[in-house]
Structure prediction request, 172 residues.
Amino acid sequence: MSYTKLFQSIVTSSIWTQDDQTRIVWITMLALANQHGEVSASIPGLARVSGVTVEATQKAIASFLAPDEFSRTKAADGRRIESIEGGWLVLNHAKYRAMATDDDRKQKAADRKARQREREDAERHAPVTLPSRHSPVATAPPSNPSHCCRASRMWIRVLLSIHQPLLFAFHQ
Prediction:
């Protein structure tokens, strides 16, 4: 199953100056486009799915096939689609799909980093239970490999702070 990410810049594009039915047909075509930007439909089928008349769909398709002097995309003279066997090809689909993939990748990396920071904060602020001087056996330091050296140094300091006064008293 494929999807098309709808960018907020659509509301400032020249497509947004078109009538409501044309915009609805355009957004329907974006929703129907496969991963290659191909929309497999007939005009009556597209009209039915869009919920507009066949005449309005024909008018919209004609405007998408025509050059658009105000289009931000100058490739193909601003045309939005071209006819292919069994439907249409959205011409700038690959460009926007790459932008969506890049945005998704950046968002996933940001989410992953936020989870890492949450884990590190939880570890840093975790309550530390010091062993009692009367406990017969001290527990082992944490075994997390990424924190092994730091945890070992901390554990040695804890043990020395507990036992150093005893050692000092013994040697006097």
Observations:
- The beta strands are 38-40, 81-84, 87-90.
- The chain has two domains: 8-97, 129-172.
- The chain has a mean pLDDT of 80.
- The longest helix spans residues 93-124.
